[in-house]
Amino acid sequence: MTLPIVAVIGRPNVGKSTLVNRLAKNRQAIVHDEPGITRDRVYRQAFWRTHDFLVVDTGGLVFNDNTEFLPLIREQAMTALSEASVAVFVVDGQLGPTTGDYEIGNWLRQQKVPVLLAVNKCESPEHGLIQAAQFWELGLGEPYPISGIHGNGTGEFLDKLILHLPSSNKMFDPEEINVSIVGRPNVGKSSLLNAFLGEKRAIVSPIAGTTRDVIDTIVERKGKVYRLVDTAGIRRKKNVEYGAEFFSINRAFKAIRRADVVLLVIDAIDGVTEQDIKLADRIIDEGRSAIIVVNKWDAVEKDAYTIYSYKKNVMNRLYFMEWANLIFISAKSGQRIEKIFPLVDIAVKEHRRRINTSIINEVLEEAIRWHSPPTTRQGKQGKIYYGTQVSNQPPTIVLFVNDPKRFNDNYRRYIEGQFRQQIGFSGTPIRLLWKGKK
Ligand code: GDP
Ligand code: GDP
């Protein structure tokens, strides 16, 4: 079977061959003589998750003085595109959009093949988003910040890329929802997992992770597939001679990184501990959505008000996570555990949500009207020009302002609060990037 082809396109020096080398790792360059494949280019075999594909570097697209493609090169690129399942258009994030990029972009938009825009040389995560945001102007959809040299962002990018490869080749489904169950030892993580699996309601299938030696557990509810990430490691724990601390922190951190949604399990008897706070901090640093799951609710003596005061206590301790939904369960009796799934769905949806620039700016205008930005001691006032959402998972909004230093924490929290009040984002952290004029 011929493997699907990914064509890499862009001006010279943007980092195409660096990216191709990264994708193909040390796999041999191959020259195919299968029908339908052009012979005069070098194809490299690559894979991501369970997809195998060929990558072809089309060579730099060069322009003459009239910013027209040189005809021969255009022809080559055309041929490469005609056989590709998806094109990766690589641009230079440090340089910003150039005339050449616009030319290639215009031309690509007329082609039938789906195009993914890779903004290369974006080594810094925060700055990278801003660098990438400039390329929305090319009109080719979301620009993905990556670094071909260091690998930042390439995983996420490849997850998007494989969505465009033929499905016969597809075993890993990126539409699955990755759910990680994390918490201190003994809070009831394994019990919760077992309760999810229950009898017959769940499909249990061990799937070896492609990049790491982990086993995930798949459960299905209402036709949706949830991948319980890395929980096998947690289950295995008891037979292994590592310290509990090693698992509670390292494994949990890894599981958080892989999650769409984290279930932060808290022991109702102990309440929120320092370790729980550490995990919550990490969830926010990683920009994951989360649900606070208070387990062992059966073991708490309670009256009609307990749940409210308990909830208040938890949220006081985890005030920086006030966006997260909270649920009280018993893994032992099964109480309310099925109610976790709808909360997961909401968190995922909000985590992936995209908001129109016009709505963002309406919220900003309204917020500023109620409370104008602060004035520094030197009498300089902050000004917000406009905002735009530059990415999701988690929703990230860049605010273009005159000078970020003029906005204190209070005002920043106020603006974030306004976004939450007006737009929601229940269950997910959001990021606001305050960007000054150069
Ligand atoms: P190509 O002509 O598009 O194939 O570009 P190359 O892969 O040969 O890279 C061109 C230049 O950009 C080289 O000097 C690379 O070292 C540099 N480069 C490539 N990728 C990155 C990256 O991710 N970050 C940075 N900072 N430089 C890069
Ligand atoms: P893990 O270390 O987080 O995986 O925790 P386990 O699932 O192994 O549970 C630790 C202990 O808490 C076990 O003795 C469980 O029986 C108990 N446990 C777990 N969930 C519940 C619950 O909902 N209620 C009560 N009362 N005990 C529970």
TrEMBL record:
<feature type="binding site">
    <location>
        <begin position="57"/>
        <end position="61"/>
    </location>
    <ligand>
        <name>GTP 1</name>
    </ligand>
</feature>
<dbReference type="Pfam" id="PF01926">
    <property type="entry name" value="MMR_HSR1"/>
</dbReference>
<comment type="subunit">
    <text>Associates with the 50S ribosomal subunit.</text>
</comment>
<feature type="binding site">
    <location>
        <begin position="10"/>
        <end position="17"/>
    </location>
    <ligand>
        <name>GTP 1</name>
    </ligand>
</feature>
<dbReference type="InterPro" id="IPR016484">
    <property type="entry name" value="GTPase_Der"/>
</dbReference>
<feature type="domain" description="EngA-type G">
    <location>
        <begin position="177"/>
        <end position="352"/>
    </location>
</feature>
<dbReference type="Pfam" id="PF14714">
    <property type="entry name" value="KH_dom-like"/>
</dbReference>
<keyword id="KW-0690">Ribosome biogenesis</keyword>
<dbReference type="GO" id="GO:0005525">
    <property type="term" value="F:GTP binding"/>
</dbReference>
<feature type="binding site">
    <location>
        <begin position="230"/>
        <end position="234"/>
    </location>
    <ligand>
        <name>GTP 2</name>
    </ligand>
</feature>
<dbReference type="InterPro" id="IPR027417">
    <property type="entry name" value="P-loop_NTPase"/>
</dbReference>
<keyword id="KW-0547">Nucleotide-binding</keyword>
<keyword id="KW-0677">Repeat</keyword>
<dbReference type="InterPro" id="IPR005225">
    <property type="entry name" value="Small_GTP-bd"/>
</dbReference>
<protein>
    <recommendedName>
        <fullName>GTPase Der</fullName>
    </recommendedName>
</protein>
<feature type="binding site">
    <location>
        <begin position="183"/>
        <end position="190"/>
    </location>
    <ligand>
        <name>GTP 2</name>
    </ligand>
</feature>
<dbReference type="GO" id="GO:0043022">
    <property type="term" value="F:ribosome binding"/>
</dbReference>
<dbReference type="InterPro" id="IPR015946">
    <property type="entry name" value="KH_dom-like_a/b"/>
</dbReference>
<dbReference type="GO" id="GO:0042254">
    <property type="term" value="P:ribosome biogenesis"/>
</dbReference>
<feature type="domain" description="EngA-type G">
    <location>
        <begin position="4"/>
        <end position="169"/>
    </location>
</feature>
<comment type="function">
    <text>GTPase that plays an essential role in the late steps of ribosome biogenesis.</text>
</comment>
<dbReference type="InterPro" id="IPR031166">
    <property type="entry name" value="G_ENGA"/>
</dbReference>
<feature type="binding site">
    <location>
        <begin position="295"/>
        <end position="298"/>
    </location>
    <ligand>
        <name>GTP 2</name>
    </ligand>
</feature>
<feature type="binding site">
    <location>
        <begin position="120"/>
        <end position="123"/>
    </location>
    <ligand>
        <name>GTP 1</name>
    </ligand>
</feature>
<keyword id="KW-0342">GTP-binding</keyword>
<dbReference type="InterPro" id="IPR032859">
    <property type="entry name" value="KH_dom-like"/>
</dbReference>
<comment type="similarity">
    <text>Belongs to the TRAFAC class TrmE-Era-EngA-EngB-Septin-like GTPase superfamily. EngA (Der) GTPase family.</text>
</comment>
<dbReference type="InterPro" id="IPR006073">
    <property type="entry name" value="GTP-bd"/>
</dbReference>
